[in-house]
Specification:
This protein is of the alpha/beta class. The chain has two domains: 106 residues, Cobalt-precorrin-4 Transmethylase, domain 1 (3-Layer(aba) Sandwich), CATH 3.40.1010.10; 123 residues, Tetrapyrrole methylase, C-terminal domain (Methyltransferase, Cobalt-precorrin-4 Transmethylase, Domain 2, 2-Layer Sandwich), CATH 3.30.950.10. Helices cover 24% and strands 20% of the residues. The chain is built from seven helices and ten strands. It binds S-adenosyl-L-homocysteine.
Length: 259
Amino acid sequence: MGKVWFVGAGPGDPELITVKGRGLIEKADAILFAGSLVSEATTRWAKSGCEIQDSKGMDLEQIVGWLIEQAQDNRTVIRLQTGDPGLYGALIEMVQPLDEAGIEVGVVPGVSSAMASAAAGVESLTLPEVTQTVILTRVEGRTPMPSGESLPELAQHHCTLCLFLSITLLKKVQTDLLAAGWPEESPILVVHKASWPDEEKIIRGTLADIRDKCRAEKVNSQAMIIVSPTIGARHWSELKKSKLYDKSFSHRFRKGISE
Ligand code: SAH
């Protein structure tokens, strides 16, 4: 019996896959990739003879059926997923039937679009004395949110919020954040197709105008919304520095100098 690997392909740029993920692609006998979000270029390291299939038109049952069939043929099989497989990736729905079929499973993490979007904007998701917390979430759409996790509730923390799957719900993002006490001028970063060569779009705005800006740029899919008190910190004149690099701060690898 072969093994099925769920491999994080990263956010789009084929070079953002991990070394381990790439090594598995080179070795794989069969690769099923999520063509709507994973660049086919990521499969360019596959050996000749590797069976490569786009899962764009397949439902869960067909996907799982394909993976099981390939693995039963004693092959090394890859399910190539966008970003990290553990975030909005239906991972467990696919793993359970594989467990039932007695097929070994492995997961290789990937660079999530949340991280790639922050990188695209040269932003830090945490800053000393500003926020030390990041919430990865989504706005309620067709998938209901569990209790306590609605945007108005999460926004109460005033920490960094990375909103997946929510670009068509920007109106709700505005309303909910205003209701949670975020000022209209709160900066927002929207990144469309972060890291995709020649396709990435970075849109900066505020709670008040981000919707109009996204509309003007025709951004209505594959976008990350980052709302954070850290956005734009690159241009701040007053910045609280991290203790880690402070001259007077001692830690395991360095003795601080008292002034
Ligand atoms: N597992 C993925 C998320 C899958 S859900 C990850 O870790 O990134 C799909 C959502 O992810 C999209 O609606 C969008 O909000 C976000 N997304 C995926 N790729 C993106 C990219 N390259 N740029 C911006 N957002 C992206």
